[in-house]
Every structure is written in structure tokens, then in C-alpha cells.
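Field log, afternoon session.

UNIT: design team B
ACTIVITY: writing a sequence onto a fixed backbone
BACKBONE:
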């Protein structure tokens, strides 16, 4: 039983470090491949490199970025992301095709 619980815990940790899993929350507004302007307002993030995305995520989390009035919404979306999560997510977005 302890082994099963340990494996389940490992599974949860692995999924949290998976960019695809992190991106699922983003896809609702940005599209499966980052091809949509979220809520018809934001920039299309498809084609962004990892550094640009990471900078945007950090700015939204810090409350210093408010591109096209999306600051408050994105601050809430990024609040629970760690620096590591943001890097993984940025790398995932950079690889979307």
C-alpha cells in the first residue's frame, strides 16, 4: 500500500512538471497551439520564444505587466506558478507548432 501511495505521489509531481499539463489551463483562452488572441484582446503567443514568454509570465505574476488590459486576469492565472513552472511552461509554449 505504501508503495502504491508513493507511486501516486510521484505521478502527481511528474505531471506538475510537465509543460503540457501546465498549458491546459492556458489553452482555454490561447488555443491548443497558442494561436488565439485570448478573449479577443491578448497577443497571439504562438511563435514566442521561451525568454519572451518567461518574461511575460513573470511580469504578470509580479503585477508589472498589463498588455492590452490583461494584467489582472493574468496575475490570477500566474499566481500559483513557481519560477520552475513558468520556465517549463515557457519552454512548452516555445515548442508549440
Amino acid at each position: 500500500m505504501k508503495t502504491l501511495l508513493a507511486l501516486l505521489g510521484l505521478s502527481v509531481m511528474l505531471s506538475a512538471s510537465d509543460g503540457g499539463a501546465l498549458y491546459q489551463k492556458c489553452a482555454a483562452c490561447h488555443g491548443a497551439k497558442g494561436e488565439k488572441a485570448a478573449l479577443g484582446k491578448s497577443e497571439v503567443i504562438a511563435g514566442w520564444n521561451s525568454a519572451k514568454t518567461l518574461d511575460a509570465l513573470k511580469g504578470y505574476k509580479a503585477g508589472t505587466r498589463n498588455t492590452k488590459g490583461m494584467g489582472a486576469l493574468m496575475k490570477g492565472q500566474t499566481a500559483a506558478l513557481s519560477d520552475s513552472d513558468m520556465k517549463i511552461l515557457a519552454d512548452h509554449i516555445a515548442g508549440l507548432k
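LOG NOTE: Helices lie at 2-16, 19-30, 50-62, 71-78, 83-94.
NEXT ACTIVITY: expression trials, pending approval
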